Amino acid sequence: MRIKSITTIFLLSGFLFSCKKDALVGEYEIFQGNWEWTFSKETIFDPLVQITTHSTVYSSELPDTYGLEFLKKGKVRFLKNGENTEKYRTVIDTYSEGSSSGLVGGSFFIILLDNKPESSMVGYISQDTLQLISNYFPIENYSQGEIHHSFENFFVRQ
Asked: Domain extents for the chain?
């Protein structure tokens, strides 16, 4: 009987800790709601000639619409044409109010998706703008040979 009790406690503990998520309340309320992707800043770096160029990709240039929905209970949904494509638990790893990037201002954040450091959203948030600086959504970073294309994706609150 004692082994069964210990096993049950161990399984329940594993379940409780594996489902860690942060509810988006208090200072994290700023994330709650729907965000629509409007544009991405592209940086292209060619290490062979040491040249960096910049361009902008606007949502109107693509056939699909993209968005994010942050739920109060601590989940985020990735949307394509209004349909859910992915859903994750949010774990706020870092949140620093008053940090500012030149483009958005606001607060710096790192959100671990499903509490996995390798699956994170890094960016800046203000009352009306969300800037993702290290996430693949909706435009993913890629390389063509030695030339690297990186994107900062911008969303506005709906």
From this structure: 21-157
Instruction: Enter the tokens of residue 142.
Output: 């890629």
70 three-class SS: strand
Tokens 């969303």 -> residue: 155
At 78, which helix (H) or strand (E)? strand 75-80
Structure tokens at 93: 């790893």
The answer to whether 92 and 111 are in contact (CB under 8 A) is yes
Peptide bond into 138 cis (omega under 30): yes
Angle, alpha carbons 57-60-64 (nearest 5°): 100
**140 token code pair:** 């993913």
- SS3 category, 102: coil
In the structure encoding, which two tokens stand for residue 143, read together? Answer: 């390389």
State pTM to two decimals: 0.83
Q: What percent of the chain has pLDDT over 70?
A: 84
Amino acid at 30: I
